[in-house]
Amino acid sequence: MSNNILEAKDISKNFGGITAVQRVDFNIPNRSIVSLIGPNGAGKTTFFNLVTGIYEPTTGKIMFDGRPLENLKPHEVTMRGIARTFQNIRLFSNMTALENVLVGEHLRLKAGLFGAVFRPKSVKEEEKRAYNKALSLLEYVGLGGKQDEFAKNLSYGDQRRLEIGRALGTDPKLLLLDEPTAGMNPNETARLTRFIDQLRRDRDIAVLLIEHDMKVVMEISDRVTVLSFGKKIAEGLPDEIKSNGEVIEAYLGKAYAQAKNDEKGS
Amino acid sequence: MAELKTPPSPATGAPQPSRPFNRVNQQQNKTVMFIALAAFFIALPFFGKPLLENFGPTVFGDTASAINSTLIFILLALGLNIVVGYAGLLDLGYAAFFAIGGYTMAFLTAQQSPLYNTPLHTNFWIALPISFLMAALFGVMLGAPTLGLKGDYLAIVTLGFGEIVPITFNNLTKITGGDTGLAGLTQPKVAFVDFQFSSSTLEAWYLVALAVVFFSIFMVRRLVDSRIGRAWMAMREDEIAASAMGINLVRTKLLAFGLGASFAGFGGAIYANSLGSANPSQFKFDVSILVLAMIILGGIGNFWGVIFGAVALRMTDVYIIPFFTEQVRKFADTIQLESKVVDGVRVTDINIMKDILTNVASNSRLLIFGAILVIMMITRPEGLFPSGRRKMELHAGDEKDLQPFISASENPLDMAATDHSLTFNPSVRESTMSDDEKS
Predict the structure, then answer these.
(1) Set of chain A residues whose Cβ sits within 8 Å of the Cβ of B147
(2) What is the 3-state secondary structure (H, E, C) of chain A?
(3) For residue range A47-88, what is the model confidence (pLDDT) as tens digits?
């Protein structure tokens, strides 16, 4: 058994003639925070969707927790222990914060039609546990006391937190965060960054992060992978990535990379 | 909608019926109320029958039939509300399941059924569960191929299904008796009190329908406040997110379809047996639309609203529309047409007013229901008694759009203390900026 919760080998995804992800090898070690960065259109979100079962890879294989992720529907992937948040928040906006988290717990609950209607003791206890767990998760993500607010009425930062809380409701082993700090001000961003770091320590889960804010990426990532035009162009520790010429070039263009190099030389 | 701008804080906010877990404290009151209501409705025929019979020989019969059919329509509305209101799947062919329930009952119990004199001929109590299982099966069968469809597309498919089923029953003349239908349904007998149901034991049918409606209300309430109800709601809100949170969309949708259909199947079976016959005209498209109108009028997603809608529209159908029709017709009759003899032929003048009124009278059902729906859609699209959710959805659009931009500028450190009123305060933004510069 390897130390990686997720191992993707030789993953490609074609959409017609366009190759969105091209022969990418990618590992996420247990309990680590791995960031996936790259310019717009680099294939980051496509990669996310490959992992979560929304797309099937054209080639390659993804192993999760020692078993392949093949032909699985999104809910089956979630069942295996991968939870995600969305780049553009997708909460159940007309449900309360508490209900949102309870929906996250859905797949860990067992009540069927009969149980839901007649509520035998086991179902009552299950609901009570689920309810308490949802409350403590809300508390944990910093939404204590807001359980009865409708999701749409929460502030933007709270909505992002609720999305994480909802994802935690599924008891994930791997949490995928798609630009969690998008649209946040620097203060909110800093708080969320600390929170993600804390999360990994507290809950023993690995985090895959897509993020544009380099400050966040460099601060909390154990490893950083850079995609550009569907290809992996670099991988390593945050500090290595910072000084990688190819990465700078991909982000800021050749001229800038050249200038930066000259600057270093002088 | 002033109260929507500042959502109630958990500490002070008035509990809304649509929010689960806020109910806990009121639970006892509700139980008492429920028992009182149940007692009243069970006792109703015992004091209602002698009371109504005072007014004349047919008053009791007419009233009781109206009440019984109202109960059946409440059942239909509750079932359709599961599909449309909770799971968000627009079903325009709901009457098809009503028909399937009714005809299954007729096949199994009618003297004119081809199954009569075969071992499959059975009594009401056995036919009843078979009828609703049959309807549920067809619900799943319709649901399965249409899983990928949403909104308008699903509506069209279900509309087609709703047309096909009664037409099929109509055209399979040898099996179903064509448009005269199947008559002579064997009606139930309760052995231990030696009571034989018939089409005229209206109070007995009332109690059967009442029991079914009570059980349905109980069931819907429990379901909505359960893992399954939450999955339906989540699916209605956002399928992609629901799926990513581990909800099996196929199973959840089929459950909604099958369960909704089984309510209609139950209703159809009881309805057909209580009338003693099943024929295609009872299950036409207008039933689908009437039931949909009931849940829209009452308030989709809120079962008290749905029940109210069913009662209101059914009563309109039974009492107000015939009354209106009669008044208009009477008025039309007062318009005298002049006629004269021209060249030995008697010619009657055309009076446009009289023509219009006669048409209004004969189509008053469509006119009145159409008017009700148009007025509702303009003034209260969420229905008369909407669930809190629905109300927000339909009325808080602008606020929703503004929310992210405004809230993003709030100082996160003060976030816990701020109320969520939608105020834009530039000074807060400045202070955040300077915080950033410091760090």
Answers:
(1) none
(2) CCCEEEEEEEEEEEECCEEEEEEEEEEEECCCEEEEECCCCCCHHHHHHHHCCCCCCCEEEEEECCEECCCCCHHHHHHHCEEECCCCCCCCCCCEHHHHHHHHHHHHCCCCHHHHHHCCHHHHHHHHHHHHHHHHHHHHCCCCCCCCCEHHHCCHHHHHHHHHHHHHCCCCCEEEEECCCCCCCHHHHHHHHHHHHHHHHHHCCEEEEECCCHHHHHHHCCEEEEEECCEEEEEECHHHHHCCHHHHHHHHCHHHHHHHHHHHHC
(3) 988 998 888 899 999 999 989 988 888 999 999 999 999 988
